[in-house]
Amino acid sequence: MKVALLGAGKTGGKVAELHKETIIFNSTNKPTVENLKSCDVVISFLAGPIFAEYIDLLIESNIPVVTGSTGFEWPSNINQTLKSKKLKWVRAHNFSLGMNIVKKMIEILSMSSELYPEAQYMIHDIHHTQKLDSPSGTALSWQDWLGKKAHISAERTGDVVGYHHLEMDSKQEKIKITHEAKDRAIFARGALWAADKILNDNDIEYGLTHFSDIVSKYLYKDQK
Ligand SMILES: NC(=O)c1ccc[n+]([C@@H]2O[C@H](COP(=O)([O-])OP(=O)(O)OC[C@H]3O[C@@H](n4cnc5c(N)ncnc54)[C@H](OP(=O)(O)O)[C@@H]3O)[C@@H](O)[C@H]2O)c1
Predict the structure, then answer these.
(1) Rounded mean pLDDT of the chain?
(2) Pocket of ligand 1 contains residue 138 by CB under 6 Å
(3) DSSP string covering 159-185, please?
(4) What range does the domain containing 158 cover?
């Protein structure tokens, strides 16, 4: 699998370390339709606003895309556009495979409102000081998975790779869920796993697919 890696900074750099058949594109070697041609799949760890500028070019290049870029708005019609061009793209705010186990835990916690109607929810993320979006895309995904309003706060300090924490606080009980990324390689590994799946798993449909949906399919395939 020949990977066109857009952005080989703190996170993308780990993709290049793990996967030798990689061509790096950055601010001095920018991607074009022509120079992407020889690649099987694009993996992006560009900052969101820069990735957004490349969306049209990536559609034109006609190859599958796995993107971890955060902090931008997708064009509202992106899913239909990709479907009509028979393209498979995968997105995630967080390519950690363990994050998908956390998703299941949060979905279970979300059911607690039946038992604790008065409970308060709070989500906190901590990341390195260079992270542009705040709160993190993952913190926003956690609120989506919870399916109810939470107080979200964020902290930017040192070189923290990624820390997310959720608390359900009721009068007599507290439930806490924490996910801590210890090494950026987890995101690179997840993105490469997704790249392999979009190239080889024919069940994945055309359009923009959430990484968590693909992981769930493999994690829970033996459950009824
Ligand atoms: N989904 C996930 O699992 C996950 C995990 C971690 C991070 N992220 C996200 O990934 C993104 C990147 O984070 P990071 O911390 O790795 O960033 P980073 O260290 O700042 O790296 C950014 C990269 O983008 C390149 N770049 C900048 N401008 C460019 C341009 N116009 N054209 C092509 N390349 C350009 C830079 O190249 P130069 O060095 O040449 O400037 C650099 O290689 C962020 O949105 C972050 O939130 C996602």
Answers:
(1) 94
(2) no
(3) T--EEEEEEEE-SS-EEEEEEEE--TH
(4) 99-181
